[in-house]
Design goal:
The complex is a heterodimer of chains A (about 300) and B (about 400). By secondary structure, chain A is mainly α. Chain A has helices at about 1-10, 15-35, 45-55, 65-80, 100-120, 125-155, 160-170, 180-195, 205-210, 220-245, 250-275, 280-310. Chain B has about 400 residues and is an alpha+beta fold. In chain B, about 50% of the residues lie in helices and about 15% in strands. Chain B has 16 helices and 10 strands. The chains are: A mainly alpha (about 300), B alpha+beta (about 400).
Chain lengths: ~300, ~400
Amino acid sequence: MINSLFSLFVFPGLFFVIFASLAFEYADRKIHARMQNRKGPPWFQPLADMIKLLAKDSLVPEHADRTLFKLMPIVALAAATASIMYIPLWRSSALYAFDGDLIVVFYLLTIPTMSLFLAGWSSTSLYSLIGAVRSLTQLFAYEVPFFIGLLGPCILADTWSLSGVAEYYTKTPAMMLVNVIGFAVSLTALLGKLEKVPFDIPEAETEIVAGPLTEYSGWALALFRLTLDVELFVGASLLAAVFLPFGFGLPAWAAFVVYLIRLLMVVALITLLRTLFARLRLEQMVNFCWKYLAPAALLQLVVNLCVKMFLK
Amino acid sequence: MNRIKIPIGPQHPALKEPENFQLVLEGEKIYEAGMRLGYNHRGMEKACEQRTYLQDIYLLERVCGICSHSHSTCFVQAVEELAGLQVPPRGLYIRTLIGELERIHSHLLWLGVAGHEVGFDTLLMYSWRDREIVMDLLCEISGNRVNYAMNTIGGVRRDLTPAQLENISKSIDALEERTKYYIQVATEEATLIARLSKVGFLSNADALKLGAAGPTGRACGVDRDVRRDDPYAAYADMEFKVVVDNHCDVYGRTLVRLGELMETYSIIRQVLKKIPEGPIAVKAPRKIPAGEVFSRYEAPRGEDVHYVQSNGTEKPERVKVRAPTLANLSSVAKMLEDNYLADAPIVIAAIDPCFSCTDRALAIKDARKGALGVMEWGDLRKYGIEWHRRNGIDFSDLNKRFSKFMERCRI
């Protein structure tokens, strides 16, 4: 009992996830800054931002739906954090693994976007409204490539459990090389999920201020910011578990170090992409996702099916 | 589909100055665009009439923080013509040099802003870092990064040393290298091109009809440049080409500005090579003979126009400033039509707007009825005093209150 409570709330649960997320936000911001020839923030900046926001008043717009407005950040953070339980981190089995947990992770990772939409919708501001509609439109564009991109490796491993996938690739590491297209697709789609450049359309600050988060302040904003960080951490963990499954067999401490390195690789790739590009327009983004990303994901699926038939 | 009206400004992250655009949206598409000016009227023209010509130079230099040299040169040229002064060639060359250095920092600033408006912050960070080179240079020459205070009636106030000329030459080489890189980025980076091309289209005919000036006009094939068409300062001695483009969109405006940077480097090199020895200024009279003059100057943003009327005293009778942004504003509404909301910031930014510099007038609008009115200077003054009195600030007994305050301090 105490053991499972510890793993839920402390390690590798809530507490660990939050701090690791803040650490990776720092890594993201620092790498971004260095690539832009800036100095970047000090290591405690994400935490300091969080504490500052928590200390501020949280205002609710006059005509907003108060319950929904205040509930949404909590739901978003809870869903994003909960998904870590089903992702194998440094051991090949996740905290709670069952066949089909892949679907649960997808489901949990969609909830933050939905809450962002509802948050923007309920805050009755024009900018929030447009941002909310944009984030939902964007969801329809990246979600399918993201899903299919991650499905490829699972089909090869013949399981719908992420832990099963990790085990399969630990046994046959060469098969990792088959999933290169899927990795590229999922990484690109993850940029859309995290609302980072070039897909930061819902919160494009020069157009609609902060999108769905325009009216948010104080602890509610802090929770939403934290949700995005957790999403970065969870998304990177997910990609690292499926596409870069190294070092599961090592002793615990070494596996942990390898895990952090794998995460850093994914985060650095995301940062690189967001440094390199300009923000796309919504219609360009949807076009790109359906014209190039989704077919590429399907190609990966076909490749994996062929490889599987060949292996039999 | 429902139409919604979204306000951009007067306070908005995309705008660096107070200005209001009302976009009527159909989904993500802009159906109609309206704008309001006048949020930062500073009464500069009126203030000019109450100061001497010499004081006016420093006041007009502060019309704009970026093209400060443009405004002061434009004004000084008008006054010199009224007074019949012949500026020594070295003075003219130094004016040209500062004007071109200003163009570099203005265009690099614009490039960064454009990058930021389309969410390409890396470009902003890079171009603003490189802009520091020219800012440092201006600081070394004039003592200031902006508002250089180089102009005076009859010439310039500071001479250049050979060491400074050497330094300029070196910095220009570095800047040219960087600009070549930006040209490469602008013409090769796919997402940037996707955001810039076919956005904010303004046909050549529309540009002519709406009077688009400067790079905005030249990107629509309007081949106009005061530096060539009506040479002032030392431009008659310079060889340069006027960069014209036929893309008619934001992409074209980017190419024109980057191309102009390359021309600017060539002009500066010519200035450094040809700069004559001699005095930098002639003595100007305090009282300027009566008359009126219209002065033109090719500011980084387009043609800047000053009108000066003199009544034979040491203060001008009337000064009229038309900043280049005013010439370009009417085309913005046209450019915004049929674009996406996402394009609104870059379309507005593409004319390199300077709204506060443009504000020459205030509209007095009845908040309830919406009717426009006219107010005399005296009435406006009375209204101002009344307004402050209603809000608890009474200037009429300020002296009394001040002495009371001082007494209290003594205790």
